[in-house]
């Protein structure tokens, strides 16, 4: 019995000794008498069938694009015209953890009846929003646009043969912050507008460089959330216009400081109805003592009604003071505008649209006034996932104290290819 136990002990000792030798000098290229160092572990092999490929990377931008081709027939007081328009555009969206970035671009290429290729508009825009925290949001924007109306455009002064090119660049930034029930917003914008010459039947070539202007504006908005639905707010605006040259008819620069103060209500109810209304006063004070300052009441109303996802109704009324623009007399334009729109989705293939608008503007420092009204209707029909047809009819009427009455009927039919 003792001999058997001794024999088992000797076998066990031999097995432990063999195991210790194997651990001290493992077989293979790494054995070479090296011992395993602390913290260094051999990697276990992974069978080929169990290997997991790396997750595919996502592109930094989600890009969408479309190309539209449209034919437009216009019959107006000055005759009829036909224009073919090609409209390529793109949108690139980046959605980050805190910052969302959007880049947009569009070009309008037109071919009137005379066969020339015109570029009525080129646009490039950049916008971003950043959530600094749960209560603070920062926004930024920049845009560059080159535009030019086509000769014979409805509403354009019939005495204009070649409208001017207009180049506009703008940048802006803003910040919004919630303090309990209070909402505070501060925004600032700076823009530069350059006007090319105009060719007219009555005065030939008109230089519009006196309308080249720098414009800056700062806005402060403070709102109080009286109820979960209703907000009471006040808004103050301070603006400034710097012109390059004196106005030819006045011999004075129309540089001015604009001020506006508004108070109003805004509300949202259950995603069905949103509305805002404000009333205030606006002042446009010219630097030159020989130019009369402008003071006017300001109205701003907007209502959006969406009883279900297929129907959307919008109505808006606004008042503003702005520069006169190219080929215009006067010191500033005071305009009142109203618009109503309806959008109804019949089914996944058909969408119907209708709109109506009204406007009245006065050129201060001049006897020129203008009244406008019009309406339109249209439909969009999807031929497939990437193709849609659009048909529109538009009527416009204007009565200008200098150029007279103008009426225009416009019919257009187009097709759009989307990504």
Automatic annotation (TrEMBL):
SUPFAM superfamilies: Porins. The keyword Oxidoreductase does not apply. Keywords: Signal. Residues 1-24 form the signal peptide. Pfam families: BBP2_2. The keyword Signal applies. InterPro entries: BBP2_2, Porin_dom_sf. This is Outer membrane beta-barrel protein.
